[in-house]
Predict the 3D structure of the following.
Amino acid sequence: MSDAPTVHTRGISACGLVKHYEGGRVRAVDGLDLTIDAGEFVAICGPSGCGKTTLLNLLAAVDRPDSGSLSVDGQVLTEMSETGIDTFRRVTVGLVFQLHNLLPDLSALENVQVPLLGAGVSRNERLKRASALLERVDLLDRKDALPAALSGGERQRVAIARALANRPSILLADEPTGALDSRNGQRLLDLLDDLQRENGTTLVVVTHEQSVASRAGRILNMLDGRMTDGAA
Ligand SMILES: Nc1ncnc2c1ncn2[C@@H]1O[C@H](COP(=O)(O)OP(=O)(O)OP(=O)(O)O)[C@@H](O)[C@H]1O
Ligand SMILES: [Mg+2]
């Protein structure tokens, strides 16, 4: 063993992260520091408007920060080109949006395959993986339904299956149990536990539900665009 300091090569490391809107009037993320180890299950809690969704979007490289440094899964996002960022989004992270963002003209089975298009995965393999994921969220019998014909909770489960299609090393989820009843909420939490245990997936889940937060290894509280305690 060497005495070298721990380097969070595969986890998440943010330092002085800033994302403002409306010319600085809205300080959504405001000098935030955060360290998450690879394979951790972290819950992020905080009042509405404190910047949780903005932070997840930065971690997923859906948005880019105004300043600060951010490294995710060993990749320094704040120094990467657009091409590198594209690959990162496709390969490294799965994101479950607060609003599930399913494509309305595609069936459940097709929606789950979207991240695999252009990823060099054969049609057969795509179908196989998407079916297995829908089965895992208990929706295989609804595979041909369009989002409009699914309930809110069912759409949320399709969105979760879609986020897992690429077998991401980091899964970011924004209120994933918000639209689920307690039975399906528990099933989702079991699925997250399995992912963490079997694949070493790093889980970052925004939630206001105690039942979700209590399953995480660590709870981080966010307020006014920053973590309030011990997050770095
Ligand atoms: N595109 C945008 N343009 C301007 N302001 C924005 C934009 N997106 C978010 N904001 C503002 O940034 C702040 C943080 O928003 P964010 O969506 O990150 O909050 P949140 O913690 O996820 O809230 P909630 O729990 O309600 O989902 C809010 O004041 C919001 O109004
Ligand atoms: Mg939000």
